[in-house]
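Sequence, structure tokens passed on for absentees:
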Amino acid sequence: MKDFKLTDEEIQNKYQIKDFESGLTSSQASERLAQNGPNELQFKKDSKLKLFLRQFNEVIIYVLILSAIITLLMRHYSDSLIITLVVLANAIIGYYQEANASNALDKIRSILATNSTVYRDGKRIDIPTNEIVVGDVVFLEAGDRVPADLRLVDTDNLRIQESALTGESDSIEKDAAVITEDHPSLAEQANIAFSYTSVTSGSGTGVVIATGNDTEIGQISQEVNNTTERKTPLMNELDQLGKWVSYVIMGVSVILFLIGLYFETYSVSVLALAVVAMVVGSIPEGLPATTSVVLSRGVSDMAKNKNTIVKSLPAVETLGSVDVVATDKTGTLTQNEMTATDVLLPSGTYHVTGTGYQPDGQILDDNDQPVKSKELQLFLDAGFEANDTTLNREDGRWEINGEPTDGAFLTLYHKGTQSMDNPQYQEVDLLPFDSAFRYMGKVVVNPAGQKFLFVKGAPDKVLALAKKTDPNFDTQAWEDKVHALSKTGKRVIAVGYKPVADNVNEINHELITSGIQFLGLAGIIDPPREEVVQALKEMNAAGVEVKMITGDNPVTAKAIGEKLGLAPEIHAITGAELDQLNDEEFTKAVLENQVFARTTPQNKLQIIKALQAAGKVTAMTGDGINDAPALKRADIGVAMGIKGTDVAKDSADMVLTDDNFGTLSTAIREGRRIYDNIKKSIRFLLPTSFAEGLIIAFTILTKNDMPLNATQLLWINMVSAITIQFVFIFEPAEKNIMLKKPRDNNSSLLSKADMVRMAYISSVMAICGIVVFDALIAGGWSIEVASTVVVNVIVFGKIFYLFYIRTSEPLFSKSFFSNPAAFWIIGLMICFQFILTYVPFMQDLFKTDGMPLSGWLISIAAGIVVLALSEVDKLVSKRLKID
């Protein structure tokens, strides 16, 4: 039987407790601690070795490792060493970034309180929270964090804030009454206190029914650990591209080797070395390293300039392909700081400026003039005093200790009085809020010695009490005003008062229910974060749909969605309604609705899975424990850094350190820029690498002397290609990048047009190299000098081709100078070419020789030919609208 259905006697029998004031004995506690382990959450964590080895899991890396082994067996040690260094460099870059991001978050810390108060051996003592065991009797009071899941057996006005677990913004009133329902939701389990939630008021006693991973939060954490992470779209595309390139190159290599063997063009060792050289020349060794460096630079920029910690390299790029952002409401889209926005008095309606708990703002009339009146002052006094919450400034932030709704009245008072002084009343007695009566009251005495009863509560209750005092009170008119405010998503609180006799020193329900005088209404809302509205506009323009998932009621949630501009037309559905649907209906509902209200953690996870099943690339943002499974499952999970729980941060791929939802729009822009630059680097790397392979392949087929040897090909790939590719790290975003729709989830990195360009550009470069080599040999140049010229022909072909790839704009446009780093890097590459060409030890190592000025002019001319043909293609493609 569920513990919430058990009586006190059944609880004592189940957990072998003599009585609640005695608790467990020390021997019982020690026995259970040894049996069940400490009260801590256990999380899976990849070892450093596993993290490092994971960096080698790419087809291109496998081919390079194979090439390194072959060259090693052939005793070409320098070739093998260089290939090995490339593989290791790529692994180190990926490992460092993942490990560094993990350290930046400090992983997940202990999420339980340091000490807790329990009854042991008939004494009330404080013990370390991790030593709490099932059956312990725990005492709770305001300010405590609940150390484990408890079945409450005694309460005194106990209220617990459960927003991190359930998504409910208000704290929940708890009692010890037996629950008869079979399947109440977490929010409805009033006699259960859940681990990691906080006591906001009152006190209580409860028996521990679950510790560590067996608690509700522990089960969510386990669900997080067991949730499968999907590969990001970029990684899927790179995997497919890497496999395709590797298989084609290996297939062509085998065929060329067999052809050469059949015709006995070269000796077996020379032929094998030539084929290996072709493989090494054609394989884009720089692809994994360049991708990692471009991603790493983007991650670094996000951390330094955009208040974002990214835990894995592909995550920042993934945001660029996202077409649906599913987001929590409280604390993410809204401030999680209830704010009074409207004051309705019998004398008039006023609006309130300022948001959050910071007491900056005013109460203004329709002419935007500050309002001062005795009627308003009495309303403010009553709202401030009928209160059990405090407002304090801590570390530069205004925060409350207590109820968010009560906190709104404290801030409202200071705005209305334009003073930080509290009203000069002395408390006589307080009746805390009771959900059965839905109001709270306080008896106070003013400096003149007059006593008053101030009451604050649900409008239907307070209006009924006002009707008792004044039979002519127009209840219907005020109910209409309440309804109008509620339709806008605001919570409405009514305030009243009455003078009481001097001998009244205690407050009871009879004192209140005998009738009060109505003072007015306050419209309260959890205000949208200022940056959210603009961010949503940018996301909608970029074709990114935003869906709000919340524990709030659907009317409030839909109204807030409309205020935020979530979508042109907003439809809402509840978690309970979703639970009644089959899989097909569920997916349809998820696609058609923008607001999901009264949801459970399971609903959130189901929504993310349904979106992914429909082919959507999803991002999930949140800050609560209840968001963790969905954060883990989403293509990219984004947690809030300030108000986010440690469980949420650990489950996410990205953490916004300033809790700024607007950063998402910036991150999407950055992700798109990174994807574009990775795509540009691939479109640059593949044809230039294939050109090197084609030179060797054409030479084998024509039975001529090799224009390039393996060492020279390695130089071109490992020095020129990777160096030049650094340009893409600094390449700015194309204009209008945020006006494009998200790319298709099933699209590939290379389009058919890209394949055609790749074929003719690689052919042009290869033909230029072969023609130049043959012409120079025929003209009497030595093989060493001719090979040196061919190396520079390929390098300058790459340099000039770079200017074509960098931007979709024509060559001579403003974008030509948009990346100053490009010119510095090209200058550095030319310096390397001078070293290769003229430094003696480099000549010996790479079999090059000094060449005359005409050799440089030939190399530059070949580069101009490549650029001219590329620019013609760009103009034709733009005119024909070929992407």
Q: What stands out?
A: Residues 662-702 form the longest helix (41 residues).
